[in-house]
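Incident log, support desk, overnight shift.

02:14 A customer reports that sequence design results differ from what the structure should imply. Their input is reproduced verbatim below. On-call engineer (initials T.W.) acknowledged and began investigating.
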C-alpha cells in the first residue's frame, strides 16, 4: 500500500509506479520476477545465542545479466528481493536486519519494522516478544 504523497518523493514517483514495482506484471513491461534462494547459515554461536541463522553478503547481485540486464552498469542494482519464511515462535526470538536501502518486514501480514529510503547501512532489531500480542504470535505456533 502506497501511503506517500500522490506526486511521489525523491525515491518514488507515485502510487501507480510503486504498485507496478511491487506486483507481478504479466506483460513483463514494468517488472520481471524470478525465484532466487538464499541459504541461511548457523554460524558458530556462544551457548546463550544458539540457533542464530544469518545471510550476509557485500556482493549480493542475484540478477546480474538477467531479466532487464545490467543497463550498462557492472551490476544490476535495481531489484527487489522478497523473502518468505516460517518460524515457530518459542519466546525470546529476535530478528535483526541490515540494509542500505528500503526494507520492510511483515510478520503475520502486519508491518514489524522498516528501514526506508536510500541510506548508509542501518541495522534494525525486532523482538518478537515485544510484538507478540499486536502481531498475533502464540508460543509454539
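02:41 Re-run completed on a clean worker. Output:
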Amino acid at each position: 500500500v502506497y501511503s506517500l504523497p500522490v506526486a511521489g518523493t525523491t525515491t518514488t514517483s507515485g502510487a501507480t509506479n510503486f504498485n507496478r514495482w511491487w506486483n507481478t506484471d504479466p506483460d513483463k513491461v514494468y517488472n520481471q520476477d524470478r525465484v532466487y534462494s538464499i541459504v541461511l547459515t548457523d554460524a558458530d554461536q556462544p551457548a546463550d545465542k544458539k540457533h542464530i541463522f544469518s545471510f550476509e553478503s557485500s556482493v549480493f547481485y542475484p540478477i546480474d545479466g538477467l531479466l532487464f540486464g545490467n543497463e550498462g552498469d557492472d551490476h544490476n542494482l535495481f531489484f527487489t528481493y522478497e523473502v518468505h519464511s516460517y518460524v515457530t515462535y518459542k519466546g525470546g526470538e529476535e530478528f535483526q536486519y541490515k540494509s542500505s536501502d528500503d526494507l520492510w518486514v511483515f510478520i503475520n501480514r502486519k508491518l514489524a519494522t522498516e528501514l526506508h529510503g536510500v541510506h548508509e547501512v542501518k541495522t534494525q532489531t525486532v523482538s518478537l516478544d515485544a510484538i507478540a500480542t499486536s502481531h498475533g504470535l502464540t508460543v509454539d505456533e
